[in-house]
From TrEMBL:
InterPro entries associated with the record: YidC/ALB3/OXA1/COX18 (IPR001708), YidC/Oxa/ALB_C (IPR028055)
Entry keyword Transmembrane: yes
Membrane spanning residue stretches: 194-212, 244-262, 274-293, 299-320
GO biological process, one term: protein insertion into mitochondrial inner membrane from matrix
MF-aspect GO terms: membrane insertase activity
Gene Ontology cellular-component terms listed: mitochondrial inner membrane
Record's keyword annotation contains Transmembrane: yes
Subcellular location(s) per record: Membrane
Similarity remark: Belongs to the OXA1/ALB3/YidC family.
Native species: Channa striata (Snakehead murrel)
Keywords: Membrane, Transmembrane, Transmembrane helix
Membrane-topology descriptor: Multi-pass membrane protein
Name used for this protein in its record: Membrane insertase YidC/Oxa/ALB C-terminal domain-containing protein
Highest taxon, organism lineage: Eukaryota
Length: 348
């Protein structure tokens, strides 16, 4: 028995000696203490988190009403630009905005989405649309002056001696661009400012859409509320609209917006006609796309298009034109003219 005990102690000593050569003494002592402590107090539950930073992060994740894209254990891991875009800061900001608006108002989700969309379009995009209208009006008012400058410049270039036709054309285009730029600076109406609405409205639309998509996923804390937050034929906002009513409403509203815009162009160019056909095709394509997304996104798209159409009609009002002090000539009966143009184009 003594010989066996001696052999076991010898083996144990060699093992500890080899392990001690690989580990530092302090770390080995800490491991042994931890092992002894777990043996002595093995009936006590070990703490799940010992780092204060990890504890704070865990509390934030548990309290946060908005789902992170990483999800929980077993959640699918997405990759690619779409996942990066859906996990971006603007999208998460829109998520918190939608959740906060619904919690503060206490309204059902379908009504909260509609009212939030109306508020965002009214207080953000409507002023930008009015500003765009002012810039376009100034640019249109300058066309007469630009035409006169072009005629005078063409005459001055034509009487220059010793210039070839190519040099005359180059000098004419160069000086005309300079004069037009000076007019834009004088009136503070560079055409690029008219595109400010697109640069803000499009990212906002994408961010709000992806925010609703994130909230409608199974890993979201709001999934249950959205599933019971619908109404009428779409009671579940996390599922697509199987009746196709919302997708058809989205497509028809977008087509009406396109046609109202096309009636403004009396003599469109070939390029404008091509762009118009492309937008019409995209409006039709939105119908099957809308049928595959959650009803919350479809409701947002329909409400946004409906509000955009109403804003478009509102900005045609003669009262609004007087308030904005538009320089270009506008009709005093815009809605009657729009109706007559629509009837003459489609009801011949």
């Amino acid at each position: 028995m003594g010989r066996c005990r001696w052999r076991v102690e010898g083996i144990w000593g060699q093992t500890m000696l080899s392990v001690g050569g690989l580990l530092r003494p302090g770390l080995l002592q800490l491991s042994v203490r931890g092992l002894c402590s777990s043996v002595i107090h093995r009936k006590l539950p070990a703490p799940a988190l010992t780092c204060p930073a990890l504890e704070s992060a865990a509390v934030f994740v548990q309290r946060s009403p908005v789902r992170t894209l990483s999800g929980g254990p077993g959640a699918p891991v997405d990759s690619g630009w779409y996942s990066s875009l859906a996990d971006s800061a603007p999208v998460h900001l829109c998520e918190h905005f939608l959740v906060s608006a619904q919690q503060l108002s206490g309204l059902p989700w379908w009504l909260s989405i509609a009212i939030t969309t109306l508020s965002v379009r009214t207080f953000i995009t409507l002023p930008l649309a009015a500003y765009q209208l002012v810039i376009i009006s100034k640019v249109e008012a300058l066309q007469v002056e630009i035409s006169e400058l072009a005629k005078r410049l063409r005459y001055e270039v034509s009487v220059q001696a010793g210039w070839t036709e190519r040099e005359r054309r180059f000098q004419y285009q160069k000086n005309l661009r300079r004069l037009i730029a000076q007019l834009y600076i004088r009136e503070n109406c560079h055409p690029f400012k008219a595109s400010l609405l697109v640069w803000i409205q499009l990212p906002l639309w994408v961010s709000m859409s992806l925010a609703l998509r994130n909230l409608s996923l199974d890993q979201s804390a709001m999934h249950g509320d959205l599933a019971a937050g619908g109404t009428l034929w779409f009671p579940d906002l996390t599922c697509p609209d199987s009746s196709w009513i919302l997708p058809l409403c989205v497509g028809l509203t977008n087509l009406v917006i396109v046609e109202v815009f096309s009636l403004q162009r009396l003599n469109p160019t070939n390029f404008q006609k091509l762009v118009l056909y492309l937008i019409r095709g995209f409006s039709v394509l939105m119908v099957p796309i809308t049928a595959t997304v959650p009803s919350s996104m479809a409701l947002y798209w329909f409400t946004s298009s409906l509000v955009g159409l109403s804003h478009n009609l509102l900005l045609r009002s003669a009262v609004v034109h007087k308030i904005l002090q538009l320089r270009s000539h506008r009709s005093e009966t815009p809605y009657r003219d729009l109706l007559s143009a629509f009837l003459s184009k489609y009801c011949k």
